Amino acid sequence: MNVMGIGAANWLKGSGTLLLSCRTNSITAIASRSRPAYCSSSLLHSNNNNNTIFSTNCHRIGHWNNHNTKLYFNFYCTAPSNVSVTEHDSSLEEDEETKLRKIKDAANTLDIRVGRILKAWRHEEADSLYVEEVDVGEAEPRIICSGLVKYVPLDHLQERNVIVLANLKPRNMRGVKSNGMLMAASDASHENVELLEPLEGSVPGERIWFGSADEKENLPEVATPNQVAKKKIWELVQPHLKTDGACVAALGMHSMRTSTGVVVSRSLKDARIS
């Protein structure tokens, strides 16, 4: 009886299924949402006289008959140096490239736009908050609250281009309904915070994306605020956002862009973005 698959000394740990076929005289091991691991335990073998399948510690675990048979196990399975094991579980951990592509696709469903702050003032009920009136290319400006009092002087917010995450659910912030978020970079200590900025010439309301310049024409539709909340899109994307060594905002290797070029922080390098 042969064990077919991915290489000597590879072990499959956990509960799964052994598919036994008399026609192919082979065992195929199927992992059940488990990682390959390296350890020492039972090796499968058979008694050719009565077709009984044993582990090396002589525990009988199944019977080989004239039909395809399923055995369910909860032990370690391995192969010696002259055989190998096949793993057939499509639910095993995806490779890193596939994960990053899915995160990028999700990021491009966020409605991130160029905004322009028309005016800003201190929140009357919260010392740490500003209230901004922001043009994001809609019929009326949006009201957005941001916790920037400690980091940005009020006069630096007036008539300034910013980056707005626009498809979050509105939030009531101490009596003011905030409809969006200003995106900013911060250092590891969170002592320095800078608003992200588009390059000069960007227009309020213009959509921002992650990727190359020519990807602009093939962007997916933006998600609704309910979809962003339900699918936790922002929570998925945000940990992968940071500025690079040139202060360019990026998602991994993919720069954050408008039609005029990349989005930047004025001075913060390798800083997280939120």
Automatic annotation (TrEMBL):
Pfam families: tRNA_bind. This is Aminoacyl tRNA synthase complex-interacting multifunctional protein 1. The gene is LOC104210729. Keywords: RNA-binding, tRNA-binding. PROSITE patterns: TRBD. Residues 106-209 form the TRNA-binding domain. One of its GO terms (molecular function) is tRNA binding. CDD domains: tRNA_bind_EMAP-II_like (cd02799). The lineage of its organism: Eukaryota, Viridiplantae, Streptophyta, Embryophyta, Tracheophyta. InterPro entries: NA-bd_OB-fold (IPR012340), tRNA-bd_dom (IPR002547), Tyrosine-tRNA_ligase_regulator (IPR051270). It comes from the Eukaryota.
